């Protein structure tokens, strides 16, 4: 079985022209005796997942503020944790961002509890 070079339609062995598009077909001597090459359609390849720097940046800022001012750290760390979890759900690698935000939240909570205890003892 032969195929048209232009449209890919199957044609008879003795046909000189394609019945679908009318293109002139090569003879067996012009082709050689090997099989006809059929081009392969390129497949879509999903690009590799990147990383979003926002959760890591918010986590670092949150850790710094967790020691100094926990009330400012809480919004940064919670937003960073939500962004990191969304990135992980979407297939991006953001486990380091999530870890930094969780550690920052633990530091902020411990600092708040420690501050409240010290305040109770002082008064």
Report on this structure.
There is one protein chain. The protein is mostly helical and 123 residues long. The chain folds into two domains: 1-43, no CATH class; 54-122, no CATH class. Helix content is 54%, strand content 3%. A two-stranded antiparallel ribbon has the order 1-2. The longest helix is centred in the last third of the chain and has 28 residues, at 95-122. The N and C termini lie far apart (97 Å). This is Zinc ribbon domain-containing protein. The chain crosses the membrane at residues 56-82, 102-121. Keywords: Membrane, Transmembrane, Transmembrane helix.
How would you summarize what this structure contains?
This protein has 123 residues and is mainly α. Helices cover 54% and strands 3% of the residues.
């Amino acid at each position: 079985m032969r195929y048209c070079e232009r449209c890919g339609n199957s044609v008879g062995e003795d046909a000189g022209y394609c019945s679908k598009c009318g293109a002139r077909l090569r003879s067996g001597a012009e082709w050689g005796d090997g099989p006809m090459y059929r081009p392969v359609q390129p497949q879509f390849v999903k690009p590799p997942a990147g990383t979003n720097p926002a959760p890591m940046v918010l986590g670092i800022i949150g850790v710094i503020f967790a020691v100094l001012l926990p009330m400012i750290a809480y919004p940064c760390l919670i937003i960073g944790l939500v962004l990191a979890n969304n990135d992980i759900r979407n297939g991006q690698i953001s486990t380091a961002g999530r870890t930094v935000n969780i550690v920052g939240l633990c530091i902020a909570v411990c600092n708040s509890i420690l501050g409240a205890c010290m305040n109770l003892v002082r008064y």
